[in-house]
Amino acid sequence: NKISDIYEKIKKEDELFVPFNSDVIDEKYSLCVRLETDEENETEILRDRVFALLDEDERKLLCDRYELEKSISEIADESGITENTVYQRLYRLRIKTKMLVKSCFDE
C-alpha cells in the first residue's frame, strides 16, 4: 500500500545518503503497520494531519519525490536549485515528517 511504499523509499534513501538509527525507524513503521491493519482510514487521517503541518513547498517536494516519483535532478531543474539542495531539503523533510508522525502517536 501507499504508506508502506513511501516508508521503503524513505528508508532506502536514508540508508544511501544519511546514517540513521534503523531501530527507531522500524519501530515507527511497525506502529504505522499496526495502525493500517486496525483501520486503513486512520492512516489517511494521520497522513492528512502530518501534511496539514507542512508548508506548501514541503508538501510539493514530498509529492514530487514520492508520489510522482520524480528524480532528484528533475526536481532540481523544475525548482531552479541544485541537486545537493534537493537532497538536503528531502533529508530535513524526512526528519521533520518522522517527528510529526511520532508526535501524532504521542497524542
List the helices and strands and how they pair.
Elements lengths: L1 H16 L4 H17 L1 H13 L3 H12 L4 H8 L3 H24 L1
Kindly describe this structure.
The longest helix is centred in the last third of the chain and has 24 residues, at 83-106. It is built from six helices and no strands. The chain has 107 residues and is mainly alpha-helical. Mean pLDDT is 76; it is low at 16-25.
Describe this structure in a few short sentences.
This protein is mostly helical and 107 residues long. It has helices spanning 2-17, 22-38, 40-52, 56-67, 72-79, 83-106.
The helix/strand class is: mainly alpha
Helical residues, percent: over 70%
Count of separate DSSP helical elements: 6
**Biggest β-sheet, characterized?**
none
The gyration radius over C-alpha positions equals 14 Å
What is the molecular shape?
globular
| Percent range for β-strand residues | under 5%
SSE pattern: HHHHHH
Please describe the structure with a list of short key phrases separated by commas or semicolons.
globular; mainly alpha; 107 residues
